[in-house]
Amino acid sequence: MKILVNDGILDGGTATLENAGFEVITTKVAQEQLDNFINEEQINVVVIKNSTEIHAELIDNCPTLKLIANASTTNDNIDVVYAQECGVQIINVSDASANAVAELVFAHLLTMARFLHQANREMPLEGDTSFNALKKQFSAGTEVRGKTLGIIGMSTEGQQVAKIALGLGMKVIAYDVEFGDSITIPIEFYNGQAIDIEIDFTSADDLLKEADFITVHLASEENHVIGVKEFEKMKKGVGFINVSQSGLVDEIALVNAIESGKVQYAGLDTFENQPTPEIQLLMNPELSLSPNIASFTVESQHKIGTELANKIINSLHV
């Protein structure tokens, strides 16, 4: 069987597939040429990320396609219902990138708390002439120990965020309708020791009112889960972070909340308009920004590749 690794699998994953007897093609095929390539090469499996779309027309045009392996936790780029109706299997990675996402939350959070997102912009421009002025400007940062982190969505990502927060001495409060009254999180240490920490769930309103920092980790198809009403309920001077999923946050409402002082700063890795985020976001000095890299580290990509390869083999009973 032939597998087209268009994107989404690295390192040991490809070798695992080849060792299982698959012919693996690693050519990067443009979206508009994908169906022709699949047909010409008689591809049975295509491995993609969210930058590649598999729509109904492509599925119709590619009768050899049996399985879509998506190196993502969501399938926004795939016509899932139609694929299933046509007997095309879809597999995803599960939690391979959860730690990478959680660490980026704190890259943004700590950056904002110490104004590094602003200092990194100003130092190259004025560091040689206004060093002392910049020192004074950015010396009013805050320590996160003892602060309250509100986590909306306690998926594996949210749980990883909680572990890091607890390690930093933060109070963690959480909201998630998918769980009961509380969740027990195991925290493992480098030397093999581990402890279990129980986190009680609170209401969405209480979380918004109490948290010093808020991070969102929802797998929701609903747009603007965080909008005007939610920002109005937040504590004045809150720090807000979304590195999880685009569309969850009303970006206009966020900018307005920053301008009013309700939100002091925000960290974003996903945007409503990708790959062309709004200029109002790109130029806002209170925003710490990254280009949708939350799930991408060397380690996470290796784990994703290995997991996808094994799932492909198991799905096709090789």
TrEMBL record:
Residues 106-294 form the D-isomer specific 2-hydroxyacid dehydrogenase NAD-binding domain. InterPro entries: D-iso_2-hydroxyacid_DH_PdxB, D-isomer_2_OHA_DH_cat_dom, D-isomer_DH_NAD-bd, NAD(P)-bd_dom_sf. Keywords: NAD, Oxidoreductase. One of its GO terms (molecular function) is oxidoreductase activity, acting on the CH-OH group of donors, NAD or NADP as acceptor. Gene3D superfamilies: NAD(P)-binding Rossmann-like Domain. Pfam families: 2-Hacid_dh (PF00389), 2-Hacid_dh_C (PF02826). It comes from the Bacteria. Residues 9-316 form the D-isomer specific 2-hydroxyacid dehydrogenase catalytic domain. PANTHER family: D-ISOMER SPECIFIC 2-HYDROXYACID DEHYDROGENASE CATALYTIC DOMAIN-CONTAINING PROTEIN-RELATED (PTHR43761:SF1), D-ISOMER SPECIFIC 2-HYDROXYACID DEHYDROGENASE FAMILY PROTEIN (AFU_ORTHOLOGUE AFUA_1G13630) (PTHR43761). Belongs to the D-isomer specific 2-hydroxyacid dehydrogenase family. This is 3-phosphoglycerate dehydrogenase. It comes from Tenacibaculum finnmarkense genomovar finnmarkense. The lineage of its organism: Bacteria, Pseudomonadati, Bacteroidota, Flavobacteriia, Flavobacteriales.
